[in-house]
Amino acid sequence: MRVTHTFEPIYDEKSKILILGTFPSVKSRENAFYYGHPQNRFWKVLAAVTGEETPSCIEGKKAMLLKHHIAIWDVISTCDIEGSSDSSIKNVTANDIAGLLQGSSIGTIYGNGDKACRLYEKFCKEKTKKEIVKLPSTSPANAAYSIEKLVECWKVIRDCMED
C-alpha cells in the first residue's frame, strides 16, 4: 500500500543532532507523531540518556527533544509498505534531509537502526554530504537489545547534543 509521511520533523535552529528513523509505524501514523507504538522504546531510551522523565504526551516529547537540541525525522517521505514492516518497504521517495540541515545547527546524524542508515546512504547522503552513525533500533522487533543495553549504546549522542 502506498503511504505518505504526514507529520513534520521536530527541530529548531538550536538542534545539534538529527535522529532518523525509516518511516512511521501504523500506530505512529494513527497518532500523527513519532514512535507512537507503546512497545517502541525510543522515548524511554531518550529520557534515560537525557536524564528526563519519560514524556507521556506529544508536547512533552517535543519539549524534551528541543531542550536537548535533538531533531527527529524519518528518511522516507512516501513508500509502499505492508503495515509497519520495514522489510516490506519499496518504491521510496526520501524526505529533504539536506534542506532540513540547512535550516539548523545539526552537525551529527544518527540512524535508529540499520534500515534507517541504509536508506539514508542510498537516498540522502549524496545531497547532505554527511555520514550517519548507526545506533541499535529501539523497535520491539530488536529483541537482542534490552532497554539497558539500548541506553548504554545511545549514550554516544550526549557528546553532540549539549552546548
What is the spatial order of strands in the main beta sheet?
3-2-6-7
**What is the residue-mean pLDDT, rounded to a whole number?**
94
Please tally the β strands and state the result.
7
SSE order: EEHHHEEEHEHHEHH
The quaternary state of the protein chains shown equals single chain
Rg, nearest Å: 14 Å
Q: How would you briefly describe this protein structure?
A:
This protein has 163 residues and is an alpha/beta fold. 35% of the residues lie in helices and 20% in strands.
Protein described:
- 35% of the residues lie in helices and 20% in strands.
- α2 crosses α7.
- The chain is an alpha/beta fold and 163 residues long.
- The protein contains eight helices and seven strands; from the N terminus they run ββαααβββαβααβαα.
- The strands form two sheets. The chain has a four-stranded parallel sheet.
- It has helices at residues 26-31, 42-50, 58-67, 97-102, 114-123, 125-128, 147-154, 158-161, and strands at 2-4, 17-21, 70-74, 76-80, 90-94, 108-112, 132-135.
SSE blueprint:
Layout: E1 2-4, E2 17-21, H1 26-31, H2 42-50, H3 58-67, E3 70-74, E4 76-80, E5 90-94, H4 97-102, E6 108-112, H5 114-123, H6 125-128, E7 132-135, H7 147-154, H8 158-161
Parallel strand pairs: 2-3, 2-6, 6-7
Antiparallel strand pairs: 1-4, 4-5
Provide keyphrases for this structure:
alpha/beta; 4-stranded parallel sheet; 3-stranded antiparallel sheet; 35% helix
